[in-house]
Fold this sequence. Notes:
The chain contains 13 helices and 14 strands.
Amino acid sequence: MPRKKKAHQEELLDLFKEPGEFSLSEPEEEEETDELKPQTVSELTERLKRLLRENFASVFVVGEISNFVRQSSGHYYFSLKDENTQIGAVMFRGVNSRLRFLPENGMLVIVRGKVDLYTPAGKYQIVCEDMEPCGVGAKQLQLEALKKKLEEEGLTSEERKKPLPVFPKTVGFVTSASGSVLRDVKNVLFRRFPCRLVFAPALVQGEDAPASIIAAIENCNLYNEQHPNTPIDVLIIGRGGGSMEDLWCFNDEGVARAIAASKIPTVSAVGHETDWTIADMVADLRAPTPSAAAELVVQTMDDWKMTVSDLIERLDDGIEEIIDDRSEDVLACLKHYALREPTHIVETFMQKVDDLTARFIDKPNQMIETLQQKVEDLDNRFRKDAEILLERHENRLSRFRGILDALGPLSVLKRGYAYLESPSGQVLTTAKALKESKTFRVTLQDGSVKAETID
């Protein structure tokens, strides 16, 4: 084989080397001449196209989609790139119709296809036969599949969701012990109405978070079984805002089933107002933020006063309507019995009217007294709990003060010890430092004096 022809063959081999093993068939021996026969551009392009098709008939490539275009014909044209380079790609309509998602710029995908040469432009490209998202795209598909599964089982239907209690005495909260969310919810609850808060700590981010959240929900339901007289009336489950990865534990199937299985009415409060998770779909109520959840589960004292006033007004209207109806009955009876002891009949019905009036007037007063007594009981219980909590913290502070007094330097000085300082305020701890300082200050229990060394 002529030297020029052999060099040309080796150049083609180097041009198409890729990881993995493949081989190029040896071309048929051509007539040995001093120079290669010239080729047209089309002929060379066709040879290159044949080489690509034969040796890259099936490849898998990972890359980020860029320059994505969906033509009116239905074909997809885009580039796959990494940090160093990019390659053109095409996915024809008959193939891309089988995709479960719509590709978009920035999406990281894995494509399977063949390398081909687009002859008119002389550019090689990947003709995609299949595509799967990885990273965020794969999670989104997983999320949609789980939504569909839970919807088919009826776990997201409104019919199965439990109503929240009107007057919750105890509120449970599943969230992280760190961060400001717990403090914010406590402030909202205790500002609006006196109630108890049961905190169930859980991890709300990371791989271990789903199991931790499930355990916290189950522990709250177990708490109700063990404390039937002071149960948790409503359970808030949530955390503050974050990225989709931060909130992903609330898209876990196990967490969703634990929320749906809870006997305690649940409120999902995950992230900010625009964030949506699977937990929001299965919970009995979705709140845009944890603080908003606290406002939804507990009414303010002013709200209760307004509710009581509305009840009283409705009772008054009902009483008047009943009295008017009974008055018409009295008049009808008077007409019927007018010829038989009219005075006795009138007196009897007048007494009945008085009895009815007194009974309906007393009823709202009794309700008001009952509600007022409940408010007073709650206020007394809140004050008692606050006193116990304050006393507990005062005792802890007293213990810490005793420990500090015992370990502090003043207690050592009271036992007859002293410490020495140089004029610059440096504590002298060695004889050498004392000699170098010459003058120093001696501090004892009741004060300090100046002194100097004598050689």
